Every structure is written in structure tokens, then in C-alpha cells.
Amino acid sequence: MIILTLNAGSSSLKFNVINMVTEASLADGIAERIGLAEGFVRWTIQGEKGRIELDMQDHKEALNAIMEKLHDTVLKGEDVAAVGHRVAHGGPNFGDPIVINQAILQEIEELAFYAPLHNPANAMGIKTAMAMFPKVPHVAVFDTAFHHSMPDYAYTYGLPYDLCKKLGLRRYGFHGTSHRFVADRTATLLGKPIEKLKIVTCHLGNGSSIAAVARGKSIDTSMGLTPLEGVIMGTRSGNVDPGVLITVMEKEGLDAKGMNAILQKQSGLLGISGISSDCREIETQWEAKTSDRARLTMEVLGYGVLKYIGAYAAAMDGIDCITFTAGIGENGPMLRSWICTRLANLFGIQIDEKINQARRKGDRLISTPDSRTAVAVIPTNEELAMARFASKFA
Ligand code: AMP
Asked: How far apart are CA 66 and CA 53, in angstroms?
């Protein structure tokens, strides 16, 4: 059985083709700069990389270009059995993955209130794919879904209750598919049922979030109503005193749009370091001790993560494992080491630095066998998780 997964952004369309018998990715890639000049599609098909320059007016043209490439190669004589769509925000109602019909598509569009950049783009991808594959199930997988199990005291903000009800203001959390996937893999790695484990999953990438996963359920997470809350990210600020926003708006004469641009695009790793939003460049300078702002940036990130781990240990009354994932979590041994060293006494953590530093792929424990709390690195695979959900409806 072949499953196609799609992740539509406002000017991009990511795809993955997964063979569900082997769970191997046969092809993946992205169409970028849709609706703009200098568009292109790049892909890896059965290990071979390729790219074409192509201006695409809309997502339909992008999907056509992608499918043409796939029909000539991995989909020759094979049909797509179902399509899994990543949807950023499921709002208060959507939890489990769901087969999309017209009413659900409309609801996804209406949830643009919560995710103005993402949900309309996701809906556009869904419409395009439904027109191209009208006979197969299209399954929406919501980024917020895994966090539906949070108790009310974890998702309630300290704002007027009626205002929150009226506007749907609460913590929703994101990266749910990733947190669920790596928590499950952590249990497998530890050889224990997930129902017996308390895990803190640290998804550290361009966007970052931490989740407390108790007995397989998310009970708290660092992102909130929007993916701005929590630790510092590539260009997003993470937590700031709300009073700061009021001060900046007043002193700099900014409206909501101007303030939003600072919080979303000019803050985080880029804002503090002044070097880049890409962690690799900052990490290199941190390691080489060539920039004190690079050190500061990485320590602000590390300190933010370690405070969440401490808080979630309190929330779950202990932890069995800390799991790192995503671009920085999987590839940043220095940051993992910085965090774990500071937690050594509290959680009895002992890191095997040789394993931590080794440039390895795959699920691995980086703690020693006698570490009281385990520490794991698990590559996330949101596409496979989405494909598994979609295949259930095929
Ligand atoms: P993601 O959003 O999961 O793709 O993660 C992107 C982030 O991961 C960027 O900040 C990258 O700089 C970072 N990243 C990717 N590879 C590495 C690496 N080898 N070492 C450190 N950071 C990395």
C-alpha cells in the first residue's frame, strides 16, 4: 500500500511517498516559491536527488509537477491508497485524525482564526489533492491533536475566563505528531510499555516545543494558543513578559502587525545572536568561543529547555526519560550535554559522552546503563506517523 503525505505552506508543498509494507520512504521533496518568481521543485526519489526550475502559479500546478515526476518513477503502475495532510491547528474540536469531507474542509478553513499563516495554506493543499485524487480517503492529521489530553489547569491562561471562552484562548500545543511518535519510539527503545513511562520529549528544531508525556498522553506542552510560546526558536521569541509587548508597542509606536513581525521573524536565535536563525552557525561559534553572543544564545536555549524539563518532572511527579528530537535535538551534542550536565544531580543523569558526540543516526540512548533517568535521541518522522494514520482509512 502506498500513502502520499502532503504538507502545504502558503508558497510551498512538501510531499512524501511511503510504502506501508516496509514503512520506507520511496520519495520525498518540496515545491517551493509557488505563486512567485524563481520557483523550483526538488526531490529525492529512491535515493536519487533531482531538481527542476519551474514557475508555478498555484498549488495545483505544483502538485501536477510533483505527480508527473512520481508517476514516471515510484508510482509507475501503483495507485496512491490514501493521502495524509498535515493541518497546523485543529482548534478545540479536532483531536484524532479524520477523513476530510466538505464540512470538515470548511471547518479547517475557519480555524484560520487560530493559525492565519498555516490553516488556509493547509486547506488549499487539501482542496488541490482532493480534486486530483477524488476516489481515495484524504486524512487530516492535526498538529494540536496529541495535546488534547491536557488537563484544564494546564491549558487555562490567567486571563478573564469569559474572554478566553469567547475567543477560544487557551494552550493548544503543536508538534503533536512528532511528540507522540518519539514518545512511542522511546518506549520501544527502553523495552517498556508506554503506559508505565513518564517522558519529556524535547522537539528542538527551527520551531521548538517540549511536552510532558505521562503514560502515553500529553499532559502539558510549551507552545500555546500559537506556536510562539515556549523556548526561543529560530526567529520566534518564545516566552516574554506580556508587559514587554505593551512597552515595545508604546515606545516604538508599533501596531499589532509590527509587534508580530518582531516576535515571529526577528527574535529567538537570530535576535539574540545577530548571527543567524540556523543553529549550526551559532553552535560553531559557541564551540570555537569566537562570539559571546553565540554562547549567550545557546545558553538561553539550553536554560529554557532545562527549566521545562524540571517543571514537567514536577507535573508528572518524576521522569523516566528525556528524549531529544528534530534538527537541533538530533544533531546538537553540545547543547544536549550542556542541558544534561546541569540536570545530573537532580535526576541522576549520566551521559555517555562518546555516544552523545558520535555522529550517528537512528534511535539511541546517550545515557549510561546506570543513569537513574534515561536520555534518548530519537529522529522524528512526522511523515511516517501521518502515513500510518492515513493508511488506517485506506
Ligand atoms: P528542523 O526544523 O527540525 O528541520 O531543524 C532545523 C534546525 O536544526 C536548524 O536550526 C538547523 O541549524 C538545526 N540543525 C540541523 N542539522 C544540524 C546539525 N548537524 N547540528 C546542529 N544543528 C543542526
From this structure: 12
Under DSSP, is residue 21 helix (H, G, I), strand (E, B) or coil? coil
Is residue 167 a part of any domain in this protein? Answer: no
268 pocket-lining for ligand 1 (C-beta < 6 Å): no
Which pTM value belongs to this model?
0.95
3-state secondary structure of 190: helix
Instruction: Please tell me the distance from the alpha carbon of residue 13 to that of residue 29, in angstroms, as a whole number.
Output: 8
Shared domain for 239 and 354, answered yes or no, is: yes
Query: What percent of the chain shows pLDDT beyond 90?
Result: 94
Of ligand 1's atoms, which has the minimum distance to the CA of residue 283? 21
CATH of residue 96: 3.30.420.40
Q: Give me the catalytic one of 58, 79, 143, 363.
A: 143
Distance of CA 278 from the midpoint of ligand 1 (Å): 7
pLDDT value for 142: 97
Cell 499532559: give the residue. 219
Q: What's the 301 CA to ligand 1 centre distance in angstroms? A: 14
Task: Determine, yes or no, domain membership for 99.
Answer: yes
205 touches ligand 1 (CB under 6 Å): yes
154 falls within a domain: no
Q: Is 284 in the pocket of ligand 1 (CB under 6 A)?
A: no
Confidence category of residue 238, pLDDT binned at 50, 70, 90: very high
User: Has 143 been annotated as catalytic?
Assistant: yes
Pair (95, 223) in one structural domain: no
pLDDT in tens, 7-26: 999 899 999 999 999 999 99
CA 279 – ligand 1 centroid, Å? 6
Does residue 211 share a domain with residue 64?
Answer: no
pLDDT band for 78, please (50, 70, 90 cuts): confident
295: part of which helix (H) or strand (E)? helix 292-316
State the average pLDDT over residues 344-368.
95
Q: Which residue has the least CA distance to atom 8 on ligand 1?
A: 327
Distances (CA, A) of 208 to 12, 89, 227: 21, 16, 8
234 CA to centre of ligand 1 in angstroms: 10
Residue whose CA is at the smallest distance from ligand 1 atom 19 = 331
Question: At 249, which amino acid appears?
Answer: M
Q: How far is the C-alpha of 309 from the C-alpha of 299, rounded, in Å?
A: 15
Q: Is 295 exposed, middle or buried (0-12, 13-18, 19+ CB in 10 A)?
A: middle
